[in-house]
Every structure is written in C-alpha cells, then in structure tokens.
Design goal:
12 strands; alpha+beta; about 15% strand; Alpha-Beta Plaits; about 45% helix; Molybdopterin biosynthesis moea protein, domain 2
Length: about 290
C-alpha cells in the first residue's frame, strides 16, 4: 500500500528478543549510557554480564516497541515508558534494585565539561590562589565570570562562586576555564533511570540510599534497644548473659557493703576494712 512503511524482519526479530528478555527476569531496568565512550561501555558491559547483569544496547524505537508489547503481559512495566529518553539500554536480571543502583553508580567517574552540557548540579568554584601566572589568563577568567584578580604576584579567585547553577548550560568558555582549574563538573558512566522488580517500580530517587548511613542507623538502634532491655531487665538470648553479669556485680557490691563473707567477698571486705582502719589511724595521728 502507498505510504506504508515496511518493518524490516531483523528489526521485528530484535523487538521480539527484547520483549522476551523483559518477561524472562523479575527485574527490568532502563540504563542511561549518554556520554560513555564505546571502549569504556564495552568494559562495563563485560563486567556486569559476569555478575549476572547483562545490558542490551539497541535503538530507542526498538526498545519502546518491545516495552509497549511487554506491558500487555506485564502491566507493572508501564511506568518505564516515561523514562524512555536519550540514549538508553536495557538490563534484565535477578537481584536487589538497591544493590544494582549502587553497582551502576560505582561505574561513574568525574569528567571535564566541553561546553554545551547541562549542569547536573550547581558548579561551585572556591576562592583561593590558582596555579596560573599573571597575564592574559586574568582577563579570560573574568570574561567567563570568574572573580579573578592579581594579589602579591599571584592569580587568585577572590570569592566562592557558583559559576553555573543546576540545570544551566555550561558554556564553552566556562568549560575551558573549569578544565584549566582542574574542576571536573560532570560524571561519565552508567545511569540507572528506573527499574521494575516484580510488580514494584523504583525511581533513582528512591534507590539512592546512603548504605553506610543506614548501617550506622541500624547499629545505633541496636545499641539503644540493648541498653533499654538491660535497664528494664528484659531477658532474651542476647541480654540474658549481660543481665546475669550485671546482677552478679550488683549482688557482690551489696555483699561487700554489708560485710557478708564468702569466697568472693572475703578479699574486697578485708581490703575495705584495711582502708577504714588506715583512715582511723590517720585521724588518731592527727
């Protein structure tokens, strides 16, 4: 029919393969690969594949078609359609979404800006002395918006400056100066956009948990709970040995205070008696 676009068989087969992958594993994730050099991406893919997290890189159109078809069999995948933008890859696997987020975050590393990029966060330039020699560089810095000046024969930045706010475009001029100042405002690596595990959708905001802080919270909660249990003498397999030790220590203190003699109290009772006798003797001598 005139005007009808024929779908190539290889593209149709690619969509079917992607759809099968989405339905075969409980965890389906969309991964951003923008800015990752081809050689680095291959290394990352190989490492993730060895850990049971293979990444399939394909066109966004094929991935969207596969996702739309998979939603018919697995409706929980539907929210992923809202995250189909830019350069995207597919990951399907077993595992924990939180661990996966941190695993992908570990692939990211600082990289210089070239100009034209969107700042992912405020780009902060601290005040202080630079390594530049006095000369035209001062004017170049000032023209780019950096508060540069010369003091005591050195090029300095006079005050802390947010040179680009989050969401702003990094100009080529600013990017050049940031690189010369050895400030790397961007990150390159894999970016987990969204993941569905079973029937549950997770956004990066939910998955970005500080695991060290959470471990510290649990450890602190455990110490506080243990202290409370000991205070109220609540016996459990964990507190029982501590409660017995505490009771023995208190009973020994009472026995020594009362002068009750036993194998355990004899030495401390006699030691106390000697101290008291010495004190009395000292009073007499005075």
């Amino acid at each position: 029919m005139p005007g009808r676009t024929e779908v190539r068989p290889e593209k149709h087969e690619r969509v079917k393969r992607l759809r099968r992958a989405m339905l075969a594993e409980p965890m389906t994730a969309l991964v951003g690969v923008r800015g990752v050099p081809a050689s680095a991406l291959q290394t990352m893919r190989r490492g993730l594949r060895e850990r049971g997290h293979p990444i399939l890189v394909t066109s966004n159109s094929a991935l969207r078609h596969a996702l739309e078809e998979a939603v018919a069999d697995r409706p929980s995948l539907k929210p992923l359609l809202e995250h189909m933008n830019d350069q995207t890859a597919l990951m399907t696997a077993h595992g924990n979404p939180f661990s996966l987020f941190h695993e992908l975050a570990s692939t990211r590393s600082p990289t210089p800006a070239r100009g034209g990029e969107i700042a992912p966060k405020d780009i902060f330039v601290p005040a202080g002395t630079t390594n530049f020699k006095p000369g035209p560089i001062v004017g170049e810095l000032q023209h780019a918006g950096f508060p540069a000046a010369i003091e005591k024969g050195k090029v300095i930045l006079k005050k802390d400056t947010t040179i680009v706010k989050a969401g702003g475009v990094i100009s080529r001029e600013v990017a050049t100066m940031l690189t010369r100042l050895e400030i790397l405002p961007l990150e390159v690596g894999l970016n987990l956009r969204a993941v569905v595990d079973g029937d549950v959708f997770y956004s990066p905001k939910v998955l970005a948990v500080d695991l060290d802080a959470r471990r510290a919270d649990f450890a602190r909660a455990h110490r506080m709970a243990l202290g409370l249990a000991l205070e109220v003498a609540y016996a459990t397999p964990e507190t029982a040995p501590l409660l017995i030790t505490k009771a023995h220590r208190q009973a020994l203190a009472v026995a020594v205070a009362a002068g009750y003699l036993s194998k355990e109290t004899l030495a401390p009772v006699l030691a106390r008696a000697l101290r008291e006798a010495a004190a009395i003797q000292g009073l007499k001598g005075a």
